[in-house]
């Protein structure tokens, strides 16, 4: 495929009102405008449909982004379309393909849609490995574009550039570029990919013994000179890794800033964090210029998630001898919808019909898959208050995990040890918006409801830890809350930097959280206040917990293998690795019970602070469940930004 995409004639011929980018307008002889387009973290969202809510939505979907692709291609003389990973997992369509239909002899629908759109290259994201290497490699078959990843290794060499990698570490795209006079010139573009090394923790069961990972920056330092030696005149890093610390630390998960500092890289496309850059998420960030759109001085972009944005890096190139030099650039993350201050969503683009048709059969099969009833619930399962009180949507996950592990440990040396269960709310608003909550009404429970309760295809794990480690595990979770001044009014309760999936509630013990104390751990799990004690009155069977007693904690592979940096969960304490996913266990539990009634048992709460009130934001539908929140004096407190509702808790 040659990159010969002059849009001037197209626009004149169609009468389109699309405006050319200034670089295309002013490019002269020997100058060329190249537009680099990025999608990232699609997570199998091809159709603008929320399978959990079973309704169409305007905020997601590659079919929507596809129409944006056509528009932005028309604005540029030359363009390149790249994806930054996390493609095949993340919603029920991904699960349906992995668990029921498979990919043997048929193309994965995400790949089929990408072929329709003419992608030039993609990298692997960490969630590509969730279903195992065989499924991953089968899913990539039929792609009309290369997949690259430089730091997932099947055979290690003496140096990273001597490694044998799972997929090619990089690709050289030979293209023809059109300058300002319409003259055509050859250009060689190198594309290299990276994934967080932590996949070895998160998907150890699939990867251990089959692949290893290298540090992102060290891999780039080894491979980029090879790409340049092969004649690449421009190098683009597909970095499925977020924007975080500016200083390089070996093995870091979010390495976009130090990666951009590697000599020879011209552009960094980033992702993984499900945020938007340039944008307010990255104001005053070390090594990042949120106005210019640069990461360590290089143009960079992060295009949200689920197709919410199209990342655009526009380069004005100057021909010098046989090569090209970047003389100017602009960066933009263009959304597929707008959200008003009141929270109303207005789509900015319609779906691409060709993409919808490409996955029409798989979409219908997914709908059939998620609508199957598996049992009934006598209590509503919602997560509107999951971050401030014991919650039914978390409760059912904990109950099912403990039920399963109790069976699995029978006949083992650990049979008879007390079993606890740790679970966290996955859908709790935040970046997902005011509708991003679990809400299963009383009545039939279908597979789509179970997927709504448990978003990820994690597998069950059991770890054996001490009572002291149970307390520290809960201290880590308690970082969800800001420190509250006794007697103060309407302080914000939740730490905005703390992710809801790291707010583990442990069932099987009772405890309270003292909000007047500082958090022992920061939002990333680092110890910051060693003497702090937020967890008080921690008891097992009505008695203070014995710090030396052994406990089994049912959890998932992500947590057990180190995800979230929880004390007692670093991979070394695992005593049981299940072949079953947490979702499957929940389904099996509901099927066996027939009817469930997982009302929250109120095993945790806050230490009273008389005369003190705090505020937290949640979905507007939370008002319907105010009378079901255990142990909290809570009342509406008006509207919150971005369509959320605000509530006041009297402590």
TrEMBL record:
GO terms for molecular function: 2',3'-cyclic-nucleotide 2'-phosphodiesterase activity; 3'-nucleotidase activity; metal ion binding; nucleotide binding. Its cofactor is a divalent metal cation. Keywords: Hydrolase, Metal-binding, Multifunctional enzyme, Nucleotide-binding, Signal. Coiled coil: none annotated. It is found in: Cell envelope. PROSITE patterns: 5_NUCLEOTIDASE_1, 5_NUCLEOTIDASE_2. It comes from the Bacteria. SUPFAM superfamilies: 5'-nucleotidase (syn. UDP-sugar hydrolase), C-terminal domain, Metallo-dependent phosphatases. InterPro entries: 5'-Nucleotdase_C, 5'-Nucleotdase_C_sf, 5'-Nucleotdase_CS, 5_nucleotidase/apyrase, Calcineurin-like_PHP, CpdB_N, Metallo-depent_PP-like. Residues 438-567 form the 5'-Nucleotidase C-terminal domain. GO terms for biological process: nucleotide catabolic process. Residues 34-274 form the Calcineurin-like phosphoesterase domain. Signal peptide: none annotated. One of its GO terms (cellular component) is outer membrane-bounded periplasmic space. The keyword Nucleotide-binding applies. CDD domains: MPP_CpdB_N (cd07410). It catalyses: a nucleoside 2',3'-cyclic phosphate + H2O = a nucleoside 3'-phosphate + H(+); a ribonucleoside 3'-phosphate + H2O = a ribonucleoside + phosphate. The keyword Zinc does not apply. Pfam families: 5_nucleotid_C (PF02872), Metallophos (PF00149). Belongs to the 5'-nucleotidase family. This is Bifunctional 2',3'-cyclic-nucleotide 2'-phosphodiesterase/3'-nucleotidase. It comes from Rubellimicrobium rubrum.
